[in-house]
Amino acid sequence: MASGGTPVPLLYLTNPYVMSTLLNFFGHTPLSRRKAFWGLALVAPNLLGLFFFFGVPVIIAFATSLNEWNVLAPPVFTGLDNFGRMLGDNLFWRALGNTVKLALGVIPAEVILALGVALILNQQLPARGIFRTAYFLPVVTSSVAASVVWTWIFQPRYGLLGSLLQPFGLRDTAWLTRPELVLIPVGVVTVWQRLGFDMVLFLAGLQAIPRELYEAATIDGAGRWQRLRYVTLPLLSPTTFLVLTLLVISVFQIFDQVYIMTARTVRGGVDGSALTLPVFLYEEAFTRNRFGYASAVALGLFLIILFLTALQLWGQRLWVYYESEAPEVKA
């Protein structure tokens, strides 16, 4: 309380200098302040949803990670012991290694295939709308249902893939049980299901490139590959950056494919050969009832994705070309 009985926070708010500083934060004129107010009012529902459905769970997960808790007994505070256990857990590093292997296989294949399909379907082809729809259908297909179907396709004796590979003597290949092969079916399903989504992004980027640039390049004698290299790819780099960023986030969260495709043998693959970080997190929480440790793993996964995303945002200045940042040509 101040000397006159006025609360200190209220005293600060009635200070003219403080009030003017707060108002200037939203704008220097009544019109700009009104625009800022309505802008905040319009984004407030999304911000509140982001806070309650993302921020609050992160805070709760961090609080849980500081305890040893199996749900049945009261939590016991252990400080940072769960994080130390995570760094010394060989199974955690194996899951991280498998996740990185999946990323190194899925991301290049996905970008190349999605870009190739987008380049083809961007041409004036008959019934290209049907082809675009067909490529996009896996995106809206349940990942669980898709994983079940692909599990049967990869069955060594009765699967479709085995029949196709029979002339090469590979019919009885145990794709889902051999540790050195089990990540291949998971990667194939991931690429197949996401291809249509990234194709649409690349199509949108291709259609935003002005046709005049291709015409000018053709007049200058540029061939098809030269136009692709010097016109299409540079102007498509913002879309490529978006696709790469979303892909990294998505691949590090792969769960359904591994969980379903290895459920009939050993979940996570033999000796953890297909174990990914989300599956490892699930097993620790809902199989072993180590919710404190699982929360630490979840925060570790969050920090890994955050670091990779920040690294991509920092590195985009080295290769991403934004047309709005091009220098103006003075007459």
Strand portion, in percent? under 5%
* Order of adjacent strands in the largest pleated sheet: 1-2
User: Which term fits the overall shape?
Assistant: flat
For the record, give the distance between the C-alpha atoms at the N and C termini, rounded to a whole number. Answer: 66 Å
Describe the protein in words:
The structure is a single chain. This protein is mostly helical and about 325 residues long. It has two domains: about 10-65, no CATH class; about 80-325, MetI-like fold, CATH 1.10.3720.10. The chain is about 65% helix and about 0% strand. It has helices spanning about 10-15, 15-25, 30-65, 80-85, 90-120, 130-135, 145-155, 160-165, 185-205, 210-220, 225-235, 235-250, 255-260, 275-285, 290-315; strands at about 65-70, 75. A two-stranded antiparallel ribbon has the order 1-2. Strand 1 and strand 2 (about 75) form a beta hairpin. Helix 6 (about 130-135) packs across helix 9 (about 185-205) and helix 14 packs antiparallel against helix 15 (about 290-315). The longest helix has about 35 residues, at about 30-65. It is flat, with a radius of gyration of 27 Å. The model has no long low-confidence stretch (mean pLDDT about 85).
